[in-house]
Here is the input.
Amino acid sequence: MSLVMPLTYFSTGFIIAFMFPRLPIILVTRGRGFNTAFPEHPEPVPLSPKLTQRVLHMRMIYWMGFVVATIPLLFGLASIKWGNAAFGFGLWISSGWYILSRLQTFAGGQDPPWTMGIAQRLQVVMDESNGESKCCDNPQPEWGIMAVSCITCSKVLDTMPRPDLGRKRQDGFFVGATRLLLSDGYPIISNDVGDTTKPDDSEE
Ligand SMILES: [Zn+2]
Here is the structure.
């Protein structure tokens, strides 16, 4: 018996279960109406309660993927038992892997691209811009690709690289979606995502 068909079924199951839990992030947030409050990708985003809220929304949708992944997992188990075993195994391996990699967060693994901590750091920068420790007379903090900095005095206010924010991507739907599948929403250029300690902030 040939191995080609089982392998095809396995790969199909694997790819479906790979895409499935990632669809919410790719589809839910890219709508036009969802992004009117923000400049177009990849422009820097001014800090605002709306931006903080967006980070929290992305975080919620990210964890929603976790719940969504249980569907191909269960379907895969059912398929192994009663349907096409190779297809079911593909589904099962892929979604099981996804769930395990997400669970790793709780065992000291990499933080998700969107966390409560990120939202809080944005809030801290906003509070500082309105308080006594503001960087200049007219602080206008915005989130660029590599850091949060002030437009007025160009001081770096937080060295936090920017994750995907659900905006429609400049490189179009398919390239954008592929990039998202590969990066999983993490900042494209990142050495220390989730590392809250900052080595130094002496550069200006
Ligand atoms: Zn400033």
Notes: The first strand starts at residue 45 and ends at 46. Confidence is low (pLDDT under 50) at residues 190-204. Residues 135-136, 139, 150, 152-153, 155 surround zinc ion (CB under 6 Å).
